[in-house]
């Protein structure tokens, strides 16, 4: 699809409706009017890879959307002074082609097309498709060839590009008023077919074309079992756990922590299997916008059928019908969305949960890595990409070094022993955020929270044994790592940061230790008052306020103020475990806690998770 937007931000719903009715694999967008501070997730469908080139001033801007089922990567064919962006698309049969989008403002000079000539020259070594808004109404397109009504320098330069590289142009109907402004070129004559114009989202028509390939869009074969936790029988799970507790308590007398954990985990997972229904992930319905009523969804299906009918017949009657349904659909969506936000505004006064849920859904960008480049080699296989990312994440950790010979004299009182209680563990379980993801052990936070009273006695026995022996279950030392793009090239592994998913039940015992360690540090004034990070009630905001106060005071007193700003690269990943343990000893922490932390930090494992 080729679509002129004239501000996509103001037409998000119209754009989504167009994409849904056409179901395009590639979308060429012009005049996006986007700014860098507008996230992809705010305007684009989540099942597309997004490539943007925003303008630094008002107007303009281009984008390419490539469906996530296609392997795509950015091509370095653009020019800083040209609104154009290019991608390479690799199909399932390993064949590939390039796709480029271009926007030429009406008042642009000849240099824009001369630079486009250079870009097309670079792309000409492969099959490519070039589309966009060229704003050259005085060019005539007959039999895919170019003729000039007026021999202006811009028209002649465009004709030179077409003739030099043997391009075919497929749009024959006006796209704005009586002018053909939006064009579609290809350097392989048989590659493009079935071109039609349909109602767009601005004063330009949209163009829909088919590309001849030997392969079709690949459906994701990745499926997983999804539990329907909202339909779970938690009372039966709790009852079964309470009935089994005496047996578990007897076994705890002669079992190590590994066996205790294994018995508890297998029992709980078995009950989850029996008491919580599940379906295959491929059967899950795609999440719809909250204002999309059943009536609007039916209208969307009618629009889709009308588009297919018009694409097949290309009759004026069917085009008129498509236009009418499109207009009706847009009106209904606008009305339903206005009603939804009015309801949202009313709810804010009494319950803001609905509002923040909507904001959270809007702000989440899709997680996906199309391909990466390692030592000059392009890697697109998911398993190989995960291995490369995992190797990089491991490489940034500090190599083992010893600080065992540091001598010190601690004048700090000894930290009181850590003690667990069933009621305390139950409270922590009840405070779990059940929307969080499960850890590598597969135990859902929903089950832990809703069966907290029945689960807490089991955890009391496991935690007590773990602390006494300084041994952790293997599951607690495993992390599933999700790579999150920070910025820069998505092909470079160094531009990703790891987000680790670990066992929720290990986080519970971590919280117990953390609370008591912080209490010990605060009681003995071991945290300086200038520390704002990771301190309760303090943050970057409070630090900024205090810093600002110091600056103003310096101005009032006519003092010189010198500031030094430091930032430690990958600070968390490069902390020395040996030095950390030595510091805990200096602070006179409970020896059993230090041994437990030492075990926690040793022999850890991780794996990178991509596309499920």
From TrEMBL:
Location of the Reverse transcriptase domain: 490-604
Domain of life: Eukaryota
Keyword set, alphabetical order: Endonuclease, Hydrolase, Nuclease, Nucleotidyltransferase, RNA-directed DNA polymerase, Transferase
Family annotation (CDD domains): RT_nLTR_like
Endonuclease/exonuclease/phosphatase domain: residues covered: 102-207
GO molecular function annotations of the record: endonuclease activity; RNA-directed DNA polymerase activity
InterPro entries documented for this protein: DNA/RNA_pol_sf, Endo/exonu/phosph_ase_sf, Endo/exonuclease/phosphatase, RT_dom
PANTHER family documented for this protein: REVERSE TRANSCRIPTASE DOMAIN-CONTAINING PROTEIN, TRANSCRIPTASE, PUTATIVE-RELATED-RELATED
This protein's name: Putative endonuclease/reverse transcriptase
UniProt organism field: Ixodes ricinus (Common tick)
Lineage of origin: Eukaryota, Metazoa, Ecdysozoa, Arthropoda, Chelicerata
């Amino acid at each position: 699809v080729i679509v002129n937007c004239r501000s996509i931000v103001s037409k998000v719903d119209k754009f989504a409706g167009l994409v849904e009715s056409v179901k395009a694999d590639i979308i060429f967008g012009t005049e996006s009017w986007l700014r860098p501070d507008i996230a992809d997730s705010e305007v684009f469908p989540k099942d597309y890879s997004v490539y943007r080139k925003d303008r630094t001033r008002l107007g303009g801007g281009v984008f390419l959307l490539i469906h996530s089922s296609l392997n795509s990567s950015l091509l370095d064919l653009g020019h800083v002074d040209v609104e154009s962006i290019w991608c390479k698309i690799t199909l399932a049969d390993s064949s590939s082609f390039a796709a480029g989008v271009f926007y030429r403002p009406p008042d642009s000079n000849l240099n824009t097309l001369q630079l486009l000539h250079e870009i097309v020259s670079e792309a000409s070594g492969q099959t490519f498709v070039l589309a966009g808004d060229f704003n050259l109404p005085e060019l005539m397109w007959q039999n895919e060839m170019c003729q000039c009504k007026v021999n202006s320098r811009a028209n002649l330069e465009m004709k030179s590009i077409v003739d030099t590289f043997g391009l075919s142009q497929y749009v024959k109907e006006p796209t704005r008023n009586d002018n053909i402004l939006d064009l579609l070129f290809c350097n392989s004559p048989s590659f493009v077919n079935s071109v039609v114009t349909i109602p767009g989202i601005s004063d330009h028509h949209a163009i829909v074309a088919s590309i001849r390939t030997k392969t079709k869009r690949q459906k994701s074969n990745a499926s997983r079992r999804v539990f329907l936790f909202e339909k779970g029988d938690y009372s039966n799970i709790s009852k079964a756990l309470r009935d089994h507790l005496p047996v578990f308590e007897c076994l705890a007398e002669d079992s190590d922590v590994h066996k205790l954990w294994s018995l508890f985990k297998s029992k709980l997972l078995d009950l989850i299997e029996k008491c919580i229904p599940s379906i295959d992930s491929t059967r899950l319905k795609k999440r719809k916008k909250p204002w999309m009523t059943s009536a609007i969804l039916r209208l969307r299906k009618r629009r889709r059928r009308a588009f297919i009918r018009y694409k097949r017949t290309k009759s004026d009657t069917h085009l008129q019908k498509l236009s009418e349904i499109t207009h009706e659909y847009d009106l209904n969506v606008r009305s339903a969305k206005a009603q939804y936000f009015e309801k949202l505004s009313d709810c804010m006064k009494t319950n803001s949960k609905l509002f923040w849920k909507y904001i959270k859904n809007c702000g989440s960008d899709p997680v996906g890595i199309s391909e990466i480049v390692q030592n000059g080699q392009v890697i697109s296989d998911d398993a190989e990409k995960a291995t490369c990312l995992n190797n990089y994440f491991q490489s940034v950790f500090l190599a083992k070094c010893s600080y065992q010979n540091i001598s010190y004299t601690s004048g700090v009182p000894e930290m009181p022993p850590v003690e667990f209680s069933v009621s305390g563990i139950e409270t922590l379980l009840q405070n779990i955020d059940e929307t969080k993801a499960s850890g590598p052990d597969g135990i859902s936070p929903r089950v832990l929270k809703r069966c907290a009273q029945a689960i807490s006695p089991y955890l009391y026995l496991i935690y007590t044994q773990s602390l006494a022996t300084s041994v952790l279950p293997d599951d607690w030392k495993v992390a599933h790592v999700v790579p999150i793009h920070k910025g820069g090239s998505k092909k470079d592994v160094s531009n990703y940061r790891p987000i680790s998913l670990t066992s929720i039940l290990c986080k519970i015992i971590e919280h117990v230790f953390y609370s008591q360690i912080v209490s010990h540090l605060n009681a003995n004034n071991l945290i300086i008052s200038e520390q704002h990070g990771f301190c309760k009630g303090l943050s970057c905001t409070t630090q900024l306020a205090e810093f600002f106060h110091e600056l103003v005071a310096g101005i009032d007193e006519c003092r010189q103020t010198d500031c030094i700003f430091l930032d430690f690269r990958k600070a968390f990943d490069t902390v020395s475990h040996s030095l950390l343990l030595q510091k805990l000893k200096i602070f006179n922490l409970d020896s059993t806690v230090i041994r437990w932390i030492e075990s926690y930090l040793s022999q850890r494992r991780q794996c990178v998770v991509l596309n499920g």
